[in-house]
Amino acid sequence: MEFSARGLVLAERTVGEWDKSLTLLCEGIGKMSAWAKGAKRVKSPLLSACSMFTFGSYSFVKKGERVTVTSAQPEETFFGLRGDVRRLALAAYLCELCKTLCAEQQPEDALLSLTLNALYVLSAAKVQEEIVKPAFELRSLAQSGFLPSLESGCMVCGEQGGPMSFSPSAGGILCEKHAGTQRDCAPLSPSVFSAMRYVCTCDAKKLYSFRLPEIPLREFGEMGETYVKTTLGMQLQTLQFYRLLCDDIRKIEENQ
Ligand SMILES: [Zn+2]
């Protein structure tokens, strides 16, 4: 069977000397694996379109369980990512998170659009990475069925006022009195609480249109990571790599 689709390469793995196994997120189809024969050869017509972070048009042939790419045209390679190793590492993490959240062969066009937009803002260096990471983490989880309860007050008593805490395992907020009922509750500063509500409900195109001062931004970043880790029940390897890279770059900058 032959078919075509536009899609984003979320992951690539070298197989043998010249072939690649790709994970694509395709419009109207969802996440799928495909074989790109000879895609590592310099003269291969598949070379650029079958690389990580590329969005393009792909033609496939399916024989049994195996899907093979027969032709591919890149539309956007997010070339700007290649100029900044930290942004590249963050892009790899966002793609792995997207890949983890997608069910196999179930249309995930909203998640695809969210991921493309994140790659675009990172590639164009239009938005601070520190905003992109937690905003993407929270929004992608919210869109995938893990919308935290932020709008109805404390999850136990419904209290709306006063200091609130967020519990990633309960998936919502708790008042001062009930914060102790969840072991992973962490106090939420009002600006981070507002940022979380904004990210969960705003128009996806305006996802990164807000600012936070440095300290709440760090708190927002930690919240995003903890919510992902708790929800998925694991830490993604690409996040560990991004974190180590950030630490190394900070140390180098401090010593200069
Ligand atoms: Zn309460």
Structure description:
This protein is of the alpha+beta class. It folds into two domains: 2-76, OB fold (Dihydrolipoamide Acetyltransferase, E2P) (Beta Barrel); 79-255, de novo design (two linked rop proteins) (Up-down Bundle). 39% of the residues lie in helices and 23% in strands. Strands 3-2-1-4-5 form a five-stranded antiparallel beta sheet. Helix 1 packs antiparallel against helix 2, helix 1 runs parallel beside helix 3 and helix 3 runs parallel beside helix 5 (214-232). The longest helix is centred in the last third of the chain and has 19 residues, at 214-232. It is globular, with a radius of gyration of 20 Å. It starts with a strand and ends with a helix. The relative contact order is 0.12. The model has no long low-confidence stretch (mean pLDDT 94). Zinc ion binds next to strand 7.
Looking at CATH, the homologous superfamily of the largest domain is: Recombination protein O, C-terminal domain
Strand order of the largest sheet: 3-2-1-4-5
Query: Which class of the largest domain in CATH terms?
Result: Mainly Alpha
Series of H and E elements: EEEEEHHHEEEHHH
SS summary, helix count? 6
Strand proportion, as a percent range, falls in 15-25%
Distance between the termini: 58 Å
Coarse shape: globular
**How would you characterize the largest beta sheet?**
5 strands, antiparallel
- What ligand molecules are bound, each kind once? zinc ion
Which percent range fits the helix content?
25-40%
Structural class of the helix and strand makeup?
alpha+beta
Poorly predicted runs? none
What's the Cα radius of gyration?
20 Å
**Domain unit count:** 2
| Total strand segments | 8
Mean pLDDT: 94
How does CATH name the architecture of the largest domain? Up-down Bundle
CATH level 3 topology of the largest domain: de novo design (two linked rop proteins)
